[in-house]
Structure of Beta-galactosidase:
Amino acid sequence: MPASTPPVGPAFTGWLPGVDSLCYGGDYNPEQWPEEVWEEDARLMREAGVNLVSIGIFSWALLEPREGEFDFTFLDRVIELLHANGIRVDLGTPTAAPPAWFYATYPEARVVTRDGVPLGPGSRGMVSPSSPEYRRASVRIATELAKRYGRHPALALWHVHNEYGAPVADDYSVHARRAWREWLQGRYGTLDALNAAWGTAFWGQVYGDWEHVQVPAASASAVNPAQRLDFARFTDSALLACFTAERDAIREHSDVPVTTNFMATECLSTDLFRWAREVDIVANDHYLTAADPRGEVGLALAADLTRSVAGGKPWLLLEHSTSAVNWQPRNVAKRPGEMARNSLSHLGRGADSIMFFQWRASRSGAEKFHSAMLPHAGTGSRVWREVVELGQHLGKLGELRGTRVRADVALLWDYESFWAQDLDWRPSEAVSHRERVNAFYDRLWRDGHTVDLARPEQDLSGYQLVVAPASYLLTADGAANLTRYVEGGGTLLVSYFSGIVDEHDAVHPGGFLAPLRDALGVTVEEFLPLRAGESLTVRYDGGRGRAGAELTGTVWADDLTLAGAQVVGTYADGPKPGGAAVTRHRHGTGTGWYVSTNFDVETLSALMADVYADAGLPSSGVPEDLEVIRRHGDDAEYVIAINHGEDAKLPLDGPATDLLTGDETSGGGMVVPAGAVRVLRRHG
Ligand code: GLA
């Protein structure tokens, strides 16, 4: 591992004080209800097996009705009630929704969009992270809360803010401009260094005065991409500084672990590998994409990413939904059993907490059509019955807490690369980093492989296979690390439009893919993107002497220059008939694959079978719709099986106990009924 690579995940190794099991619960917003409802809430929470709720996340206006005047009556009562009922508290700092007085007093603290529009109040989450007034006010309310509740016996966790980076991250306000210049001075020291890094000789953009450097707001044409890439880094840093300021204020008065809820895979403005080092326990929120009938795959990717940024440590699912959300174009209700399947997939992928937005459905406001643990239809509803059943199931799974997931495959996920690739004026608008990540992840999911997400610079030596679906920006360190990985016996697969630019969005010396030339035995002479709707044919034989299969590619082709690689797929047509399309290269004791076109998830199957063979990854033997994940404890292995399809056979070698039913199985496998979940403890 390069010496400069920081460790992955939080330093904290503890757990939530006073919680001796998995966590179950959700966001609780009692301020939306008269006090007599709270007693019923507490009773029903006990009935459902709830042991943790997140409170106070949007309570700033109530807690500080006028600037500097605090009133904790409401929170005192709620915390005492929860405590009396044995329910632990995840206490929010309410800084994602400043009160009306804040906007009235500090109108310049509002976020300004790239087009120059200041975002008005009346919603939430629209304060400039660079505003000194916001920083002062948010640290003050966090401090007051920490002083008052920091040692309260009900307190199990601090929940700072809510989903940093959402609904907006970029801010082009006057505060941002000042902070941005300071950040640039810290990064580059001199304007000469900035001019060199940004390549300002192009289009005559050379700066001679720091005051002339602007935020990259909307302009007449494409704004300097290196400037925009740095602005993405600055935005991430500005948000992270808001978190660490509140966290440090809390730590002055409380030893309880501090977290903030991420939105892994959905909010790309925050580099969660960086953020995870700053929290005590990694926490995530996840909502299914209702338009996707196979939303469980996106869920799995989000959960695997969350575990990966946590460095493999257990993490908390702080929000998901019992049924439909309210903010997508068509909000599809979850089918019977789907909530349990979703919950068990998070659990299987390392979550030690299963929580929801929110406990009781709101009658008013923007989210009244969002599902809840206790829906508008009340306790006579299907959702409530499933909530109670899930609580009972989680109560039987306490021994999984703290156990770990192991992955043989790493898929590269690098925020900086995504920020750079998603800027203007790329060779084809059809090239999407998420599309390639999703396609390769989906293939691995269907083939039953458990996947970690990893940065190119981190230690990869423990993985049998590393897949790079979208490594447009690849640093020299990252490329050297990948090359060492192959040299040392690893199998690396790289997809097109990777290894193109360095950390300043400047093309690598030597041309496209040059930093991976040794590992892959090939470079790219010219990009050959396709027109909309065009496809091409690749004659593919996998290099194993088989008859060529015809595979259809779309979006992209390359004109490749071979540097030792074996050609295992050749373009039969398209922009370069006869040219190399897929290559395989032995380097050191490992193998580097390069794929220069876009194969869809079905087509990838043929290719990946050969890649798995090189990596020594056996077939899982599990039917495609049966999701199987394993968690490993000191003395036991747990198999979590989630059936998204028809009745399916789960292969099992040796006896096991079904933790949900208590049934013993003697080995040889078991049938998991359509839609069902199983959690098995394997013996010995
Ligand atoms: C986010 C927020 C919650 C709520 C849910 C609705 O995750 O954190 O406050 O708005 O979305 O899905």
Notes: The first helix runs from residue 35 to 48. The mean pLDDT is 97. The first strand starts at residue 23 and ends at 28.
